[in-house]
Amino acid sequence: MQVKGNNVLITGGCSGIGKIMARICLEKGARQVIIWDINERAIAATVKELSGKGIVRGFMADISDPESVDAACAATKAACGEIDILINNAGIITNNRTFAEQTDRDIIRTIDINTKGAMFVTLRFIRGMKARGRGHICNITSSAGMLALPRMALYTSSKWASIGWSESLRIELSREKSPVHVTTVAPYFINTGMFNGIHSFFKIQDPEVVARKAVNAMERNKSYKGIPFSEHFIRLMQGIFPQRLFDFIFGDVCGLYTVMNHFTGRKENVTHEHVFTKDRNAGVRSEEVLRERENPRRKMA
Ligand SMILES: NC(=O)c1ccc[n+]([C@@H]2O[C@H](COP(=O)([O-])OP(=O)(O)OC[C@H]3O[C@@H](n4cnc5c(N)ncnc54)[C@H](O)[C@@H]3O)[C@@H](O)[C@H]2O)c1
Questions:
Q1: Distance from Cα 16 to the centre of ligand 1, integer Å
Q2: 64 CA to middle of ligand 1, Å?
Q3: Which homologous superfamily does the CATH classification assign to the domain defined by 7-230+241-293?
Q4: Of 113, 117, 182, 241, whose CA is between 20 and 30 Å from 161?
Q5: 188 flagged as catalytic
Q6: Are 182 and 173 in contact (CB under 8 A)?
Q7: Coil, strand or helix at 277
Q8: Where are the domains of the chain?
Q9: What digits encode the pLDDT tens for the residues 161-186?
Q10: pLDDT tens, 238-284?
Q11: What is the pTM (predicted TM-score) of this model?
Q12: How far apart are the C-alpha atoms of 198 and 299, rounded to whole Å?
């Protein structure tokens, strides 16, 4: 579906490729770009930054919480009308620990945001899209949704599930001959800061290029877009190579199985740790807010 003239909703639109896609959609003439994010401060800054390019609105939403999604959905529909294009982009990586070192909390957070979040959001918009006979859903997954990678077990499993869900949804809609389309985008590592510290044999992708390719794939109604294109061969290689040979080539020779060893993430910026919790009195708050509340001096440091 063409962006021009349509209402576009982007989750996680305050950072990385989400923010760049928001800018690109405005440049392409979107009627309105609506940003949902958990980071309230970043929403205000992003709306201010992009408002010179067109109509952009921001709403606080924790996509992992159905109640928060309901509230954001109601506020969005009241202020902006119906959504024509939904880009499910928000995602997190919690750490580079082995699975044995993980906590229940990290398992829940990763699956709730990366896997269930896009489902919760999509469920609130898909019935309206089907009833109106128009709409496009673009799901930003990851090449890690096709690969098994050490020290990334939670992230990879969340993205494998995402790809399976996104592809199933696409096939359901296509078999119903619905005019609503789905594009699944699976990029390799991107230089946004989310995966700071990794050592990659393969080229780390440029955020601007990935964002533009994702929007273009959506506008061309592509069903699946691996970035870079060579990623489309992963499944073929998994199918034809004996497991040990695949492990040797990609794990040992290309170093993919040690790619996360030096991962740091965005240490310098707590707003991007994506750590959040629920506070019954205050609603959903980013942990940054909670930490500042507990220790106001930290903010001054
Ligand atoms: N960066 C990479 O190397 C890479 C590679 C492949 C796929 N991806 C995927 O692309 C997407 C964007 O990645 P990025 O690098 O631009 O990320 P990013 O960290 O720069 O931005 C993610 C945004 O999502 C928001 N967010 C986090 N949790 C949320 C929640 N519960 N509810 C609403 N918003 C929430 C954050 O506040 C942030 O604005 C993610 O889904 C990621 O998994 C990233």
A1: 7
A2: 13
A3: NAD(P)-binding Rossmann-like Domain (3.40.50.720)
A4: 241
A5: no
A6: yes
A7: strand
A8: 7-230+241-293
A9: 999 999 999 999 999 999 999 999 99
A10: 999 999 999 999 999 999 999 999 999 997 544 433 434 333 333 33
A11: 0.91
A12: 28
